[in-house]
Write a structure and sequence with these properties.
This protein is of the alpha/beta class. It is built from 16 helices and seven strands.
Length: 418
């Protein structure tokens, strides 16, 4: 199977981070998607692991999604890895899964204990353990001197779907009532705030930001971090991507953000086809929308640190849900590859035409159009040479610190945006 072609190549990010030569190796063991059908073709793992270790380790994680590196601290070489929940037993930790985790810990120059960030509430993880999955038993890894486990209490896709549905239903009803009534502006504002609060949308955004801060600060201190949720393609993508945004100034540029989305969301198998579907579907959920909302909050709190505007985020959001772009077709790279191959054959297209169906190409075209000024941040101040590689942003994350992202959540023509 040929390598997937796209205007943005995540291998470029690994080269930027100087992954090779830092006790890590880029493996093509998944080139034909035989190890994990929902992972990218190139996997980065500790160089002490051979192909047999990788294949065996994949069998001991849900969906074959074993721990792999996605980011390396450019100054300390502390790794950020992601995966799915482990296949567990009560008596022991699977041998190969333990070997992968210990190898990640040992590849970190600081020597600090590994921190495992489980995005889920503890009760949810315990429920999964009754089905032979669940979470890591730290004692099997050697105890607190070797590793720690923290639950981040971020709710699942079903809770998020209900929250955004309630927010939109309440906001539509409030807009209709305010139009019909001649009540005071104060009462209208109070009603609107009650609707926002009852949906708990900002509460969930707050939780995602809080968890991302925890991951970022662990990395900044010097702890290697492994992030997972259940299958590792929803909350895990949010946490890993946001932690990198908080630490690495490159991802606050337009090229950097697009690459981050490509890496953490597209190639690592966020289920765009299912999640962007009808709200009546049990698989739909605003996970990616929530990620963009978190970036919106960061842009408000750090107005000179992001090269893109909040309008850029809104355009990206609406393009995501438009159904026009192959970037968001299917649920992973393997499915997307097969979908595009069939389209090319049926329509007799050239594979080079792929880039013109990409959201990344579209956004870059807009940046060269007459709307480019609205997509960039005129107050952006690039980091100086002393913090070009790392500049940690620590946002406020309490609900009272957050604002409703009307342009993204409702659309630019919705009454709540006017």
């Amino acid at each position: 199977m040929r390598k997937l072609q796209d205007p943005i190549n995540i291998d470029d990010d690994y080269q930027r981070l100087h992954v090779l030569g830092a006790q890590w190796n880029m493996s093509d063991v998944n080139f034909n998607f035989e190890v994990c059908t929902t992972y990218p073709q190139t996997l980065v793992l500790p160089d002490c692991l051979n192909s047999e270790d990788i294949v065996a380790g994949a069998t001991q994680r849900s969906k074959g999604r074993l721990p792999v590196l996605v980011w390396l601290h450019p100054q300390s070489n502390v790794p950020l890895c992601r995966c799915a929940q482990p296949q567990v037993t009560l008596s022991a930790m699977p041998e190969h899964d333990r070997k992968v985790l210990v190898s990640i810990k040992n590849a970190c120059p600081s020597g600090f204990p590994l921190r495992i960030a489980d995005a889920r509430p503890r009760l949810n993880a315990q429920a999964n353990a009754m089905q032979g999955k669940g979470y890591e038993n730290i004692s099997f890894l050697g105890g607190p001197s070797m590793a720690s486990l923290q639950f981040l209490d971020i709710d699942n896709i079903h809770v998020m779907r209900n929250s955004i549905s309630k927010l939109r239903e309440n906001s539509t009803a409030a807009s209709t009532n305010n139009t019909a009534n001649d009540g005071t502006a104060a009462s209208s504002m109070h009603t609107g705030q009650d609707n926002i609060t009852s949906s708990k949308w900002l509460y969930h955004v707050s939780n995602v930001l809080r968890g991302s801060i925890g991951v970022a600060e662990s990395l900044q201190i010097g702890h290697p971090v492994v992030v997972h949720c259940s299958d590792g393609w929803d909350r895990t993508a949010q946490l890993c991507a946001l932690a990198q945004l908080l630490l690495d100034p490159y991802y606050r540029t337009i090229d950097g953000l697009l690459l981050l989305i490509k890496k953490e969301w597209c190639t690592f198998g966020h289920k765009f086809e299912d999640r962007l579907g009808s709200t009546n579907s049990k698989e739909s959920s605003p996970v990616f929308l929530q990620f963009l909302d978190c970036i919106y909050q960061l842009c408000l709190q750090f107005p000179t640190d992001f090269a893109y505007s909040t309008h850029f985020l809104a355009v990206l959001c609406h393009a995501t849900y438009s159904g026009y772009f192959t970037t968001f077709k299917e649920n992973n790279e393997m499915e997307r590859y097969r979908f595009l191959r069939n389209v090319f054959m049926l329509e007799r297209l050239n594979p080079d035409d792929l880039e013109f169906s990409s959201i990344f190409c579209y956004m870059k075209i807009l940046l060269h159009s007459n709307v480019s000024a609205a997509l960039t941040n005129p107050h952006y101040a690039p980091p100086d040479s002393t913090n070009a590689d790392i500049k940690y942003l620590r946002p406020r994350y309490l609900v009272s610190d957050l604002q409703l992202w009307r342009e993204g959540l409702f659309g630019m023509n919705h009454p709540n945006f006017k």
